[in-house]
Design a protein that fits this description.
By secondary structure, this protein is mostly beta strands. The protein is built from four helices and 30 strands. β16 and β17 (230-236) form a beta hairpin. The longest helix is centred in the N-terminal third of the chain and has 16 residues, at 6-21.
Length: 421
């Protein structure tokens, strides 16, 4: 049974009242100008804290039996909507079997809404629409991935009041997707280079179209934050081409002979950060480059000797946090570095061994960069989860404003955390 604290219940009531009047306004979390950090605690339950007081923790669930991902009942797969809804999934593991439920908060009458269940598989990933539904009645939409019929299914959940509908809209292996900023369209990539496809799905009509594109080496497509076009990697012979496609306009940002390209939009949609993996089995990429859509300038912005594995734009687009790969003895460590694009500085901050759940997100970072936030909304904190020497996972945040090298702040034992939008 999931139990909510009194403060959490009042938060849910506030959001429900807000939904009763308008689905276009920002939720109470955003209006309070406070970022909330949701994380999976060391006991496998869901917790929330906030920038106003990082030590003021609220436990949202109380029935986990084990730490996340172990045999027994625990929670995982946190995600925030843009206006403060929180989704999370439970998983009960028993040998090779897994039973799961996907929950959404706020909940009616103080209880969460179960929007999905499976008796045989766990939720792989969930991703809220950037906008509420385009209907007269207030509602929210999200997609999630789950294994079905020896494949991965993308399911669309529509939540209106106390009711939720759940339909399969796509299927493939692997499966990576991107919401358009208006919430009217999904773009997804399925399959590998030899059998892959790039598909556009129109949410209002439920119609999908396989686009006449040959996918190259990349994971998730990415709609521009402006909604004008999207980024994909196409294959041309032995070359991977990172391309910006807007209607009939196709612009090649870079053409590379490496095995894959990872990329992410700046928040204003005017710059693209990208990096190239030379060999398929390399655990890292080459240097980060920035491409400016207005000027067409393309420049390397990180040291050629570093080995980045992931990067994340700050909310204001002035900084780029990136993690590098550092093999030390038997460990594969990550260093968190922050590139300030305005001041042209590059600072090395925390050195840590990422927790398994954080490593899971880093391995598909250009998917998670579209749906989850490691930065707090004000750009002050960056959250990470580390597996430390005692084999315990712990949640930390770096205070970017505390001196030249930042200040690590311990939050709690836990396996993964994400900031609200």
């Amino acid at each position: 049974m999931i139990r909510f604290s009194a403060n959490t219940f009042l938060l849910g009531v506030g959001l429900i009242l807000l939904l009763a009047t308008s689905c276009d306004r920002r939720g109470s979390l955003a209006e309070a100008d406070i970022s909330h950090l949701a994380y999976i605690g060391g006991d496998g339950n869901v917790y929330v804290t906030q920038t106003a007081d990082l030590q003021a923790k609220q436990r949202l669930t109380d029935d986990a039996e084990v730490a996340s991902e172990l045999q027994g009942l625990s929670y995982h797969r946190l995600s925030w909507s843009r206006d403060g809804w929180l989704a999370f999934a439970s998983v009960r593991r028993d040998g090779d079997m897994a039973q799961s439920k996907l929950y959404v908060l706020p909940a009616l009458d103080g209880e969460p809404l179960v929007v999905a269940e499976s008796d045989s598989h766990f939720v792989i990933y969930n991703y809220w629409s950037p906008k509420p539904c385009l209907t007269e009645d207030p509602c929210q939409q999200m997609v999630y991935l789950i294994e079905e019929d020896d494949d991965i299914a993308l399911r669309l959940v529509t939540i209106a009041g106390a009711q939720a509908t759940n339909e399969r809209v796509g299927q493939g292996w692997p499966f990576y997707s991107s919401w358009s900023p208006d919430g009217r369209s999904l773009l997804w990539r399925t399959g590998w280079i030899v059998d892959g496809a790039i598909t556009q799905y129109m949410v209002p009509s439920g119609r999908s179209e396989v686009l006449p594109l040959s996918p190259g080496g990349f994971l998730a497509p990415a709609w521009s934050p402006t909604g004008d076009g999207y980024l994909v990697v196409t294959r041309d012979g032995a070359m991977n081409k990172l391309q910006y496609i807007a209607g009939d306009t196709v612009r090649t940002i870079t053409a590379e002979s490496g095995s894959s390209i990872a990329f992410a939009w700046s928040p204003d949609g005017r710059q693209v950060a990208y990096m190239v993996r030379a060999q398929e089995n390399d655990p890292y990429f080459g240097p980060v480059h920035l491409y400016d859509l207005d000027s067409g300038q393309n420049q390397r912005v990180t040291d050629a000797g570093l080995r980045p594995v992931a990067f994340f734009w700050s909310p204001d687009g002035q900084q780029l946090a990136y993690l590098t790969w550092l093999p030390v003895e038997q460990n594969q460590l990550n260093q968190l570095r922050v590139l300030d694009l305005t001041r042209e500085t590059d600072r090395g901050l925390a050195l840590f061994n990422a927790s398994p759940l954080m490593r899971f997100a880093l391995n598909s970072f250009n998917q998670y960069a579209q749906s989850h936030r490691f930065w707090s909304a004000d750009g002050r904190y960056f959250v990470y989860a580390a597996r430390e020497g005692d084999n315990q996972d712990r949640i930390w945040v770096i205070d970017m404003r505390a001196g030249e090298y930042g200040q690590p702040v311990f939050i709690d034992e836990g396996s993964i955390g994400y900031w609200s939008w």
